């Protein structure tokens, strides 16, 4: 467990926190005028290892050689030249900070942090964090890595909170449902209105995974299992990849599942070429098969999304007594499925693809240039 303190005066800026993996949707911008919840669970923090935040430089200004040195291998709109190592926490876990009035502009319904740090240490006045709560952005406080220090909690250390094993994670069953009520700003006199939609977490996770699936395809067709996996990927894969024989086969793999056949064999469709596997929510580690010699490509999925794909469960209504408050979503009748087909997040897709070595292939570069990509995803 750690607390973060001001680098200038050592004043505490957070409650005790334990480190978890950075969520895939950390930088997601979802929809328009959407009220997204808090990004981080209470009592946790995550670290962005890449540069993030202002100043930003356009691709034309940076050039491909300098961008490649920063791990970006394909054109993007702009690259961050901010410091790497920003720490993200739930706003409710901060202490001793005050908003800096001169740096709160440029937002729509809240704070978007486009001008950099907008929260100061209450004790010494140093700018230490960026508070974000604008529409369509996940609510979060980003601590500036050069303005804070991480200190172990007295009597403890980074061994106080041990990561759960894969078996424990599966037993805990913290799945991410594919559908959820999404809030919009000022929809009624009661406050926010809601509509049922594909989960923004799933949209972001699919954007990351689709980039890996295309890289793993090697320009060949890719088949995926029926059901939710097909809802997420089949339409995009069938559109972006050629048709024909020699398709690569993607399957779900991970803890509590039978080991997939990744051998060659005589039947080209009897083995798996691509494994859709979970990432550990605390460590960020990607699950790996017991056989380290497998040649299959591992496509990462956030653990909660992977768990819902592997063990889909109905969510029956729960009987309750009394009158349902007016601002509570009713489940009679049950919430309908989203009316629109699933679309992966194009920004997450592009951000992921631009950092994969396979993007140097001309055919993948061409996919990134397609104007119709955003509409497809």
Q: If you had to describe this structure to a student in words, what would you say it looks like?
A:
The protein is an alpha+beta fold. The chain is 20% helix and 22% strand. It contains 9 helices and 18 strands. The protein has a 7-stranded mixed beta sheet, with no helix packed on it. The chain has a 4-stranded parallel beta sheet with strand order 15-16-17-18. The chain has a 3-stranded antiparallel beta sheet with strand order 3-13-14. The longest helix has 18 residues, at 200-217. It starts with a strand and ends with a helix. 34% of the residues are buried. The model is unreliable at 264-270 (pLDDT under 50).
Tag the structure with descriptive keywords.
alpha+beta, globular, four-stranded parallel β-sheet, seven-stranded mixed β-sheet, 377 residues
């Amino acid at each position: 467990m750690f607390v973060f303190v001001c680098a200038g005066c050592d004043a505490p800026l957070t409650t005790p926190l334990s480190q978890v993996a950075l969520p895939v949707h950390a930088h997601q911008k979802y929809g328009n005028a959407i009220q997204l919840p808090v990004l981080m669970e209470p009592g946790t923090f995550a670290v962005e290892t890449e540069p993030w935040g202002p100043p930003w430089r356009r691709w034309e200004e940076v050039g491909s050689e300098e961008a490649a040195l920063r791990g970006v291998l394909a054109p993007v709109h702009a690259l961050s030249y901010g410091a790497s190592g920003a720490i993200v926490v739930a706003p409710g876990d901060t202490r001793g900070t005050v908003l800096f009035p001169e740096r709160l502009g440029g937002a729509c319904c809240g704070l978007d942090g486009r001008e950099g740090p907008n929260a100061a240490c209450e004790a010494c006045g140093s700018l230490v964090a960026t508070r974000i709560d604008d529409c369509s952005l996940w609510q979060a406080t980003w601590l500036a890595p050069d303005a804070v220090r991480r200190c172990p909690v007295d009597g403890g250390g980074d061994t106080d909170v041990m990561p759960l094993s894969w078996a424990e994670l599966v037993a805990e069953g913290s799945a991410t449902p594919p559908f959820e009520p999404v809030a919009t700003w000022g929809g009624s006199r009661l406050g926010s209105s809601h509509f049922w939609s594909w989960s923004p977490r799933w949209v972001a996770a699919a954007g990351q995974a689709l980039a890996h699936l295309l890289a793993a395809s090697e320009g060949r067709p890719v088949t995926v299992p029926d059901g939710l996996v097909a809802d997420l990927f089949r339409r995009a894969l069938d559109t972006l990849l050629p048709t024909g024989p020699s398709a690569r086969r993607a399957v779900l793999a991970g803890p509590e599942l039978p080991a997939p056949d990744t051998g060659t064999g005589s039947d080209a469709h009897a083995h798996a070429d691509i494994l859709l596997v979970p990432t550990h929510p605390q460590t960020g580690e990607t699950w790996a098969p017991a056989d380290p010699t497998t040649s299959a490509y591992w496509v990462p999925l956030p653990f909660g999304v992977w768990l819902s794909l592997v063990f889909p469960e109905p969510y029956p209504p729960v009987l309750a007594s009394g009158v349902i408050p007016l601002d509570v979503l009713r489940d009679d009748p049950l919430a309908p499925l989203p009316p629109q087909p699933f679309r992966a997040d194009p920004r997450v897709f592009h951000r992921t693809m631009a950092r994969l070595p396979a993007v140097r292939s001309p055919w993948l570069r061409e996919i990134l240039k397609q104007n119709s990509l955003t509409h497809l995803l």
